[in-house]
Amino acid sequence: MLLLFTHALPPLRRMLEHLWVWQPAAGWPAFPPFYEVPFWLCAAALAYGLTRPAGTLAWGALLRQGARMGWPAVRTTVLFVVMAQLMSDAGIPTRLAAGWQAAAGSLALYASPLLGGLAGLLTASNTASNALMMPLQAAMAGTHTSLLPWLAAVQNVAGSALTALSPIRIEMAVALAGLAGGMGRVYARAWPYGALPLALLTAALAALRLG
């Protein structure tokens, strides 16, 4: 309900988008903490904990457990973001895009959904997928600035869709369901859920190019 109110009501959304906006460094995107989903999830969890009877929650143990479980994800995401920044500063995405466009010609842009999807599949994180591939997608747009928002959208959607099929998530699901050695069976049935978004995004790019 909190997420619905904070993101669906225009006056409240505009206020939160401009409330205590934090920019880590020059040139970096601004970060409005009161508009972000994790803030409200943490606020709801804290409010629930405070309403519980005194002594029923071991706050120290819960915080330590949460930090221990969350640290690998935080560490990995930061690593991917820093690596993407270094790659961008070194001009690697531009060179890769130029090489790919020279090899594929007019069909180069149609690899955009596949690149975004593979990054999401391998990293299991849309943030990491975008950090790795968004500079390459931007370089593929080249001088066609009108394509840049579309390629950014394709990257974000493809990366998000394929994170659901990442090996680590499938392995966790198989373990929780008690299906030992069942990853092959899961992928045999789940692959259309990854192929369909990629096909639709490729068709959308084709329609955009023809239009």
Overview of this protein structure:
- It is a single chain.
- The protein folds into two domains: 1-23 and 31-50, no CATH class; 61-210, no CATH class.
- It is built from ten helices and no strands.
- It has helices at 2-8, 10-17, 37-51, 59-89, 92-104, 112-123, 126-141, 148-163, 167-177, 183-210.
- Helix 4 (59-89) runs parallel beside helix 7 and helix 6 (112-123) packs antiparallel against helix 10.
- The mean pLDDT is 85.
Q: Structural class, judged by helices and strands?
A: mainly alpha
Order of helices and strands: HHHHHHHHHH
Q: Roughly how many Å is the radius of gyration?
A: 21 Å
Biggest β-sheet description: none
Report mean pLDDT, rounded to a whole number. 85
Put simply, the count of helices is 10
Poorly predicted tracts of residues: none
Gross geometry = globular
Total DSSP E strands: 0
Helix content: over 70%
Number of domains: 2
Distance between the termini: 40 Å
Fraction of residues in β-strands: under 5%
Family: Belongs to the lactate permease family.
GO cellular component, one term: plasma membrane
Protein name: L-lactate permease
Membrane topology: Multi-pass membrane protein
Q: Main attributes?
A:
211 residues; mainly alpha; 2 domains; 10 helices; globular
Summarize the structure.
By secondary structure, this protein is an all-alpha fold.
Which helices and strands, and how do they pair?
Blueprint: H1 2-8, H2 10-17, H3 37-51, H4 59-89, H5 92-104, H6 112-123, H7 126-141, H8 148-163, H9 167-177, H10 183-210
Helix pairs in contact: 1-2, 4-7, 5-7, 6-7, 6-8, 6-10, 7-8, 8-10
